[in-house]
Write the structure tokens for this entry.
Amino acid sequence: MYARWESEGDTMTALALTQPQKIRVNRSELREKQSKYLRQATGNQIVEVAGRFEEEERYLVDKQYLDDLIAKLRSLTETLNIMKDQRLFSQIMKASETIDEDIRLGKLHSFEEAFGED
């Protein structure tokens, strides 16, 4: 009945996050049919509440949608910070050239092996 998102485990895909479906209502419609519109704000379906002025407009969004959006933004920010550090990024790129071979030869250790409990 309501639009759901394509999932990667319990999170939305980047495509679903960046292409929300909007349902536009005015404030009086929202007051009259609040339960209906709260149910419709699910997945990447957003209820856009009109205001007299643009700065008064609001969105009703699914909690998981907002949580996933924030998580993806944090991840993107971290990736950009790594890429911005030219020294670190070049080290990562150099290591990536041999990682498949290192795995095959057993040169890498799991986090449990490296940092496991005593």
Observations:
- The chain has a mean pLDDT of 86.
- The helical segments are 14-18, 27-32, 34-40, 63-84, 86-96, 99-104, 111-115.
- Residues 63-84 form the longest helix (22 residues).
